[in-house]
Design brief:
Layout: E1 4-9, H1 13-23, E2 29-34, E3 59-64, H2 76-79, E4 85-88, H3 94-110, H4 119-125, E5 131-134, H5 145-156
Parallel strand pairs: 1-2, 1-4, 2-3
Antiparallel strand pairs: 3-5
Helix pairs in contact: 1-3, 1-5
Length: 162
């Protein structure tokens, strides 16, 4: 079975929590997290390590420097042909996150599986300069939403030098 492809819009605490929850699923899932920042908050070079809890053939990719929305580089609707499901990570509670993940996995599993193109081709075609971080997050971490909120809060206070 090929992995389900799910997009999470925003690398905020809710988006990272959603990706964390999805990586805990028993089935293979590929998650693309979209964020307007060029790099995910709190990313440390070489921090990701092989995670034995992660399902084989599951992965997380962060696509940065991309704004999703009505006035953004791409709309929510324009993401749908590239993914089995799209989650807009704008919720404030774990119950909402669990509901969004369950709904997305349910929708993705119920769809007739078809070959999906990689969104990066569409970004290139639209002239969007994006960054791509493959397997840069070591998930799942089993963090709660509150713990992800703290990670993001602390990471925003750390200066980044390139």
């Amino acid at each position: 079975m090929s992995p389900l492809r799910i997009a999470a819009v925003s690398a905020n605490a809710a988006g990272l929590y959603v990706a964390d929850l999805l990586m805990r699923c028993a089935m293979p899932i590929t998650v693309d997290i979209f964020d307007q920042a060029p790099a995910p908050v709190g990313l440390r070079p070489n921090a990701a390590q092989a995670n034995t809890k992660q399902t084989s053939r599951s992965s997380v990719r962060v696509i940065g420097n991309v704004t999703i929305g009505a006035d953004g580089d791409l709309s929510i609707e324009s993401l749908k042909p590239f993914y089995d499901a799209v989650i807009v990570a704008d919720f404030a509670s774990e119950a909402q996150a669990h509901g969004a993940v369950a709904a997305a996995v349910g929708i993705a599993k119920s769809k007739a599986k078809q070959a999906l193109s990689d969104i990066t081709h569409a970004l290139d075609a639209h002239g969007v300069a994006f960054t791509e971080w493959r397997d840069a997050l070591s998930l799942p971490t089993d963090r709660t939403l509150a713990q992800w909120q703290e990670v993001v809060r602390v990471a925003r206070g750390v200066p980044v030098c390139v």
